[in-house]
Amino acid sequence: MAKSRSYFTGIPTIAYAGPGASNALAFRHYNPDEIIEGKTMSEHLRFSIAYWHSFRGTGSDPFGPGTIVRPWESGKDPVSVAKLRLEAAFEFHQKIRAPFWAFHDRDIAPEGRTLAQSNQHLDAVVAHAKQLQKATGVKLLWGTANLFSNPRYMCGASTNPDAHVFAYAAAQVKKALEITQELGGENYVFWGGREGYETLLNTNLKREQDHLAAFLHMAVDYAKSIGFKGQFLIEPKPKEPTKHQYDFDVASGIAFLRTYGLEKYFKFNIETNHATLAGHTFQHEIEVAASQQMLGSIDANSGDLLLGWDTDQFNTDVKELTLAMTSILRAGGLGTGGFNFDAKLRRPSIDPADLFHAHIGGMDAYALAFKLARKILADGQFERFVADRYASFDTGFGRDIETGKANFKSLEKLVLGKLGEPTPKSGKQEYLENLLNTYLHG
C-alpha cells in the first residue's frame, strides 16, 4: 500500500507526560504502556474512536448546517474520498494511541443508487480499511448498520409497517455483519434509532415488537451460519428521534430480550447520554446490566442536563466516571467491549487540534477514573458499608428469605413474637458522599 499523505502535520504522537504536565497535547493520566496486573492500561481500557462523529461530523446541529471543513473531504469520486477519510482516521488513531475504531456501514462508504451498488462501495472501502488495520495494528471494536438516516427508514426498519422496508433492512444488516467479520470486529451493535412510534393512532405496537424480535433472531441465525463469533450488543436510547422507542433503557431491553428468548445472545452497549435522557444515571444503567451479566460495552460521552437532546459531548466529569468505573470493575470489566468515544466536537471547535484536545480530555478522565475506582475497590470501605447494611440477610430468617425458605406466615409469626417493631438505621448518605470526595480530591 502506497504511503498516504499526512492530515495532522505539526501534531505529534500523544505521549504520557504525567499529572503535572503543562503540554495540552499530552496525556496526564492515560499511560497506555503502564502495566497493571499483567496488562497495559491500553488493554484494560480498550479505547475506541467513533468514526461517525470524529470523521463524518461537520459541526451541524438542529439549528444550523456544518461549520467544520476537513482537508480529506476533497474529490469528486465519493469512494475515493471515503478512502482518503479512512487514511486520515487511521493516522489520527496512531497519534492519539487508540487501539480500536467503530463505524456504521454508511459512515465508511457512500450509499449507492441501489443496494447492490452500496455493497460494491463497501467492498472497495473495506478492502482499504483491512490494509490500514494491518499496517497500523488498529482493530475494529464493533460495526453496525445505519438503519435510521435514509428516508426509507422514516417509520423504522425492523418495526416498519411495510414488509418491503423490513426486507431491505435485513439485507443491509446481512452485509454489515459480513464486513464486520471481514475486519475482525469483536462486537456488533444494534441501535434502534427509529424503532418506535410517534402515535398509537397508526401503530400496532405488538406486531412491531414481534417484528423487531424476529429481525434479531434472523441476525443471530445468520451470524451462526457465517461463523461470526463477536458479541451482539443492544444500545438503548429513550427518545430522539422517536417519541416512544422500544429500547428505552437497559431494564426494558432486558425484559424485551427475555420475552422473545434472545437474552443469551445479547448484552448491552450503554451510552452515558442515553442513560441521562432516560432519567437514569450512567452508573445505574451499568449496574442494571451487570446485575444480569449483560454488561457489554460503553459509548463514552455525556449530555448537557440543560438541553433535551443527545448532545454527545466528551465526558470529563471524573466523579461520574469514577462511580461508573467502580461498577464496571466490580462486574469484572467489559470483556470484548471497550470505551468508544461516541462524542463530537462542539460546533465552534473547527481546528484539527480540537479533535486531539477532545479525545485527550476524555481518555485522561476515564484513565483517572480507572485509577480512582481501583483504589476505592482495593480499600473496600464502600463495599464493607454496603455488606454491613444488608448483613441481616446473611443469617437467620433473613437468609431464609433469600433462599426461599420463609413465607408470609413464618415472617408474621416472627414479627408478632420476638421481633416486634424494626429499629430504623441510618443510610449515612452524606458520610459516604464525603468519603467519596476524599478519593476524588485527596
> Structural class, judged by helices and strands?
alpha/beta
Report the biggest beta sheet as strand number plus sense, adding barrel if it closes.
Answer: 8 strands, parallel, barrel
Cα Rg: 24 Å
> How many strands appear in the DSSP assignment?
14
Cα(first) to Cα(last) distance is 51 Å
Strand content: 5-15%
- The best one-word shape is globular
Mean pLDDT: 96
Which strand order spans the largest sheet, edge to edge or round the barrel?
5-6-7-8-10-12-13-14
Produce a short descriptive summary.
The chain is of the alpha/beta class. It is built from 16 helices and 14 strands. Strand 7 (about 140-145), helix 6 (about 165-180) and strand 8 (about 185-190) form a beta-alpha-beta unit.
Structural notes for this entry:
The protein is α/β, with parallel strands linked by helices and 442 residues long. The protein has an 8-stranded parallel β-barrel with strand order 5-6-7-8-10-12-13-14, surrounded by 4 helices. It has a two-stranded parallel sheet with strand order 1-2. Strands 3-4 form a two-stranded antiparallel ribbon. It has helices at 41-45, 51-56, 78-96, 105-108, 115-136, 163-182, 205-226, 250-259, 272-277, 282-291, 318-330, 352-379, 381-389, 396-403, 408-419, 429-441, and strands spanning 15-16, 26-27, 35-36, 39-40, 47-50, 100-104, 139-144, 187-190, 196-197, 231-234, 244-245, 266-271, 295-299, 339-341. Helix 5 (115-136) runs parallel beside helix 6. The radius of gyration is 24 Å and the shape is globular.
